[in-house]
């Protein structure tokens, strides 16, 4: 963390002698440094120390398991004729039968007609949104979809892009009716609406009310007043739900049995499956559109054998029960987390005073399943104080700030993994409320300190170094 804070030091004086090209670039970076949002690549405590991993994307823990290693090496052994590179773009010399076979297997696993493997879900979302909406189509999206979908919207040929409030079914209905009324070609069934959603939202950790949204679309009137035209279609990014939800980790769409109601599903392999890459699932028509108009498919080297082997070995584990085991553990640990949180003697006071806010704690007992992502908020400045406290207690939890989340919505993002233990959760809650206690003591004037101890330690060092920001009063 020290290096991240230190990296915010404005460089103006040391870059004056650079050629104008670099000076201009440094000026743009200085704008970020001055706002303390300069991106700096950090060493992860969970990899380099004994700190508890409450942050990595290795949700089901299969990315680091020995079973995974064995399955991956077996793939390599059984396909010794395949090399490390794919040697070309998919449409020319980069296609190979192992890749095609894996795509068919994956499509079958998720109940889809076809699948297309790509290098990442970022590329998948950009490919989908830049290629699938045809001129005159309209995109309606949840306001919290990932930056890659926003990037795709910008490149799309859609006539209009309309957003609705996060997970708000009524606002979705409003957006749908607004488009229906203002776009005659859509109303007449000649153009389509594409709805962009995520299975589990990456920063808030809440599950999409997919069934309700599908029902709202089904209720829309058709050309003759009562028959839906099939021109409202759903696209679901399951980057954070693949592996974690659904039978054998097949995701939210499969969990809800909505395979026929969702036109396109994107899965990332960079998280629960412990690999890298992505798949776009849909009909053969969708695959045809992507292979013809998806520039991030057409003009790039096709996925290499080791990458596809890593994905395939991840599925082998899902099929052997790793998904169910991991899902059960995440449910158990998440339940313990919410139980300990909401039954803690300081919880109500911390919440009422605005020191702590955990939106998903409301009504957690009534949810059919709990997710592995928990957003823990506090006022903007004290998110850092909370972070410093937990880091000092050896818990790796990442602070998420603007521009990843809107200004004023900073939070710590806790990720509960299958490899976490009950003691990790108990220790985390105990440390969190230790911090709450310090905050209450400061507020009630019981101490001379104006910030909690861990923050005080960091700020002392920052003052010596002439650094500011990160909640420093
Ligand atoms: C919701 C969502 N979609 C897509 C992506 C991009 O995934 P990938 O890392 O495979 O590019 C992410 C990455 O964090 C994500 O959170």
From TrEMBL:
Keyword list, A-Z: Pyridoxal phosphate, Transferase
Pfam families documented for this protein: Aminotran_1_2
Keyword Transferase among record annotations: yes
GO biological process: biotin biosynthetic process
Residues covered by the Aminotransferase class I/classII large domain: 54-430
Domain of life: Eukaryota
Family: Belongs to the class-II pyridoxal-phosphate-dependent aminotransferase family. BioF subfamily.
Name of the featured protein: 5-aminolevulinate synthase
Organism lineage string: Eukaryota, Fungi, Dikarya, Ascomycota, Pezizomycotina
